[in-house]
């Protein structure tokens, strides 16, 4: 798979505030990225965003930089969002635009929303592999810097070693599963053979049972006919009882209707009497009110005797007062007599209402008793009718049973032949299952073989990869001017007990000595070149193993710790590497280098408006 990085457009990403497009796919060669800090000249080429190009590529692909920065950590200072990087690539000649944004968050391939795994499926490598495929980052650990466990994990991921572990485990599981299937199949074969023998024996016995079955069938038909006669007698008796109780219920029903009419008439009379009584009560209350007012007037007039009239301002005549009081007394007595008359009428009506209610209660009790008797007769009638219907259904079922018995085929007539045929089928199935047993035996043998040899294959793959890695790394060492140096790797081995001892050790052999020094103990001045050789070797191994070919690499601050001769050897190596691998190799450094092999120079200028990329 050939993955070519064509160009990249960056907006509001780290120090790149304005939308900027940088061409990535140039003439294969060595390209130099240098910085110019115009905001703080004392820093020279530092703090200008030289690494932004590599960070933007990695962020567009994986949503984080090599240092693990993501989301708001990569947004231009002072901005609240709008970060966007569009990476233009081609995969085996097919062009794609991968666009990632933050606020709003988005990930698109050719304008369609995608998930992260779809990007990785497209380019053929993941973040861990990218950190070594794309070159050496300024802040990222190269291969030799990793802890032994991290080296082993990375190598296992690159070589897909976990596949062999899974293959071995899966083969062991399948061997157990198929063995279980074999035992079950073998039991099934024995069961089929036993069933075939039993069927043959049963068929012989059934050949003698045909006549016995016919005799039993006729006896069953006679029994059902006898039941039908019994059911008919029950139905006749039940229907007779139902008619009797229905007539009695009808008689009581007529009496209930008459009683209900009488109760209704009496209730109407009671309602009228109660209404009449209520009218008298209203009249009495009104008379009581008038009497109370007359009493108050009389008392008021009596108090006026010997006083001055408030209206005419003259002395009140006692005779006049007496005359007026007498008139009030006469009115009071008339009203009192009328109230007494009304009360007597109310008592009379109350007594009448009581008598009517007692009559209604007696009628209701009579109605209740007759209704109970009516319900009893109806219940008896319905019960007998249901009984008759039930036995009618039983007669129909019995007739169906007779028809079924008469038409039912004698099972023994064909049973013997059927059992002979079934026995042949069982025997044929047993023979087919025996063939399946033979196939399962082959599968068990194959799964057991892979379960036993998966570890050996895994170790072989590792040893082959280590050999290739050592070759790549030591070739890079020679090109970096360390031709007499040698790096050796050692990884997991199978122990005498059959288990695998895991580890990853790096040894350095310097000129003039046969002693191998562990990398963790090394502190010589050639450390940077050893680190770069390890990174280049691993990158080549990943490309070869994954089948992914990239058209660019980045080396961020690779000259750190190197002298003039070492820098020249490194740049010359990178130039040769770009020609041999047909790659665009970008060297990012904070100091200028007098090297004529650069194909192009990109000035990264930081001013008050942010970072800009300018071709020299």
Structural description of this entry:
With 616 residues, the protein is of the alpha/beta class. It is built from 10 helices and 18 strands. The protein has helices at residues 52-62, 116-123, 127-133, 148-159, 161-206, 210-303, 318-407, 411-479, 527-546, 564-581; strands at residues 2-11, 20-23, 29-37, 83-91, 94-102, 106-109, 112-113, 135-136, 486-490, 493-494, 500-501, 505-509, 517-518, 549-550, 552-556, 584-588, 598-607, 610-615. The strands form 4 sheets. Strands 1, 2, 4, 5, 6, 7 and 14 form a 7-stranded mixed β-sheet that branches. It has a 6-stranded mixed β-sheet with strand order 8-15-16-3-17-18. The longest helix has 94 residues, at 210-303. The two termini are 33 Å apart.
Q: What does the radius of gyration come to? A: 57 Å
Low-confidence stretches: none
Chain-averaged pLDDT: 85
Shape call: flat
According to DSSP, the number of beta strands is: 18
Number of helices: 10
Summing up helix and strand content along with how strands pair, one would put the structural category as: alpha/beta
Cα-to-Cα separation, first versus last residue: 33 Å
């Amino acid at each position: 798979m050939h993955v070519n990085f064509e160009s990249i457009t960056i907006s509001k990403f780290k120090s790149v505030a304005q939308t900027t497009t940088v061409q990535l796919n140039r003439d294969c060669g060595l390209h130099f990225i240098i910085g110019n800090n115009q905001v703080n000249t004392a820093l020279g080429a530092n703090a200008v965003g030289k690494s932004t190009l590599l960070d933007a590529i990695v962020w567009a692909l994986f949503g984080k930089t090599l240092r693990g920065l993501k989301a708001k950590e990569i947004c231009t200072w002072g901005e609240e969002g709008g970060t966007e990087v569009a990476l233009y690539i081609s995969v085996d000649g097919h062009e794609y635009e991968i666009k990632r944004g933050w606020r709003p968050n988005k990930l698109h391939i050719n304008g369609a929303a995608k998930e992260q795994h779809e990007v990785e499926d497209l380019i053929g490598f993941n973040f861990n592999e990218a950190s070594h495929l794309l070159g050496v980052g300024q802040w990222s650990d190269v291969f030799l810097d990793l802890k032994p466990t991290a080296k082993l994990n990375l190598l296992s991921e690159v070589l897909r070693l976990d596949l062999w572990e899974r293959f071995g485990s899966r083969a062991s599981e399948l061997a157990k599963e198929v063995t279980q299937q074999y035992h079950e199949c073998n039991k099934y074969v024995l069961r089929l053979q036993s069933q075939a023998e039993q069927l043959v024996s049963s068929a012989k016995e059934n050949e003698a049972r045909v006549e016995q079955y016919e005799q039993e069938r006729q006896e069953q038909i006679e029994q059902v006919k006898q039941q039908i006669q019994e059911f008919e007698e029950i139905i006749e008796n039940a229907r007779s009882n139902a008619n009797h109780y229905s007539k009695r219920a009808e008689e009581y029903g007529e009496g209930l209707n008459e009683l209900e009419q009488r109760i209704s008439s009496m209730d109407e009379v009671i309602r009228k009497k109660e209404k009449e009584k209520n009218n008298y009560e209203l009249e009495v209350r009104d008379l009581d009110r008038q009497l109370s007012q007359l009493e108050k007037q009389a008392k008021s007039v009596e108090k006026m005797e010997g006083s001055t009239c408030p209206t005419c301002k003259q002395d009140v005549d006692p005779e006049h007062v007496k005359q007026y009081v007498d008139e009030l007394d006469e009115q009071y007595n008339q009203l009192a007599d009328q109230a007494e008359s009304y009360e007597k009428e109310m008592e009379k009506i109350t007594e009448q209402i009581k008598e009517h209610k007692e009559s209604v209660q007696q009628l209701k009790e009579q109605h209740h008793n007759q209704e109970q008797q009516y319900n009893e007769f109806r219940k008896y009638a319905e019960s007998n009718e249901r009984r008759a219907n039930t036995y009618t259904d039983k007669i129909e079922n019995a007739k169906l049973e007779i028809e079924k018995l008469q038409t039912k085929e004698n099972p023994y007539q064909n049973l013997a032949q059927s059992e002979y045929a079934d026995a042949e089928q069982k025997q044929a199935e047993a023979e087919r299952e025996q063939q399946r047993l033979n196939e399962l035996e082959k599968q068990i043998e194959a799964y057991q073989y892979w379960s036993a040899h998966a570890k050996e294959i895994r170790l072989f793959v590792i040893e082959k990869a280590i050999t290739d890695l050592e070759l790549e790394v030591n070739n890079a060492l020679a090109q970096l001017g360390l031709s007499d140096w040698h790096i050796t790797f050692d990884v997991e081995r199978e122990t005498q007990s059959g288990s695998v001892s895991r580890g990853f050790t790096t040894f350095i052999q310097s000129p003039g000595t046969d002693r191998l020094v562990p990398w963790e103990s090394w502190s010589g001045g050639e450390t940077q070149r050893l680190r770069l050789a390890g990174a280049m070797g691993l990158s080549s191994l990943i490309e070869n193993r994954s089948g992914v070919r990239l058209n660019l690499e980045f080396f961020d601050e690779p000259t750190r710790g190197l002298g003039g001769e070492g820098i020249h050897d490194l740049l010359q190596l990178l130039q040769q590497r770009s020609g041999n691998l047909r790659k665009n190799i970008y060297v990012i450094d904070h100091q200028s280098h007098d090297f004529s092999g650069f194909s192009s120079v990109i000035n990264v200028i930081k001013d008050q408006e942010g970072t800009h990329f300018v071709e020299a």
